[in-house]
Sequence to fold (87 residues):
Amino acid sequence: MIDHHDYVPEEFVLGSFRIRPYDGDLIAKQKFDFRLQFDIGGDPVDVSCMGVVVKLTEEAGLVARYQPPQPFYERKLVDYMKALKGL
Fold:
């Protein structure tokens, strides 16, 4: 969630993500707050994060890096990503 808008990332790895299409107000090199929201095993997770816009074009969409959340939430995020990939 960025600026009260839900987005589903097209690409998401630890440390970065891409949202395409993106129709918000961020600009290149801007720092921003966002929320990661996902469900793992029936347990909803909602965590605040800090990101920075790496690239923002119509073709690329919004590409951003983010600081990892607290270790507890980072483990949950890793577990969620493993579950998505069937690991």
About this structure: The longest helix spans residues 71-84. The chain has a mean pLDDT of 93.
